[in-house]
Amino acid sequence: MITVEKSVSTPNFLDSAVGLVRKTRQLPQTMGKADGKYKTVFAGTIYPKDDATATGIVFADADVTDGDAVGSVLVAGRVLKDRLTISDAAFTALDGLGIVFVDENGGVVKPTAASGTPSQPAGS
Asked: Which of 8, 13, 60, 59 is nearest to 38 (CA)?
């Protein structure tokens, strides 16, 4: 009998490998999403939570089916904001920690202090 397994393809959210810094972190099983019979923390997931406590972005998929796993978390570098699902609070937190968010044209996207919504600086 042949078994066919479906997988999820994560879109590339990395703008550039220049200046990329990754750290090894413990990824709790609670961060995982059910993917068929597996539980996975997908690349692009905000670490540790998608809120003001954010310190990075999961760099590569990690299998947490059988419990917590060690994974790679991006803590500095250039990422394509439109390819991530991220809250305003996490966006602001990560922007202040060394992650540079850019649009599809390479323009830097910054959070707006007053509204918490992203904007592009003048001249971008």
From this structure: 8
Between CA 83 and CA 20 the distance in angstroms is 17
Kindly report each contact of residues 87-91 with a partner whose C-beta sits within 8 Å and lies 24 or more positions away, as own/partner.
Answer: 87/46, 87/50, 87/51, 88/116, 88/117, 88/118, 89/50, 89/51, 89/52, 89/54, 89/116, 90/46, 90/49, 90/50, 90/51, 90/52, 90/54, 91/118
SS3 of residue 17 by DSSP:
strand
Q: Per the structure block, which two tokens stand in for 58?
A: 């999961």
Helix (H) or strand (E) holding 88, with range, is helix 88-95
pLDDT tens string 59-88 = 999 999 999 999 999 999 999 999 999 999
Q: What is the pTM of this model?
A: 0.83
CA–CA dist 71, 93 (Å, integer): 21
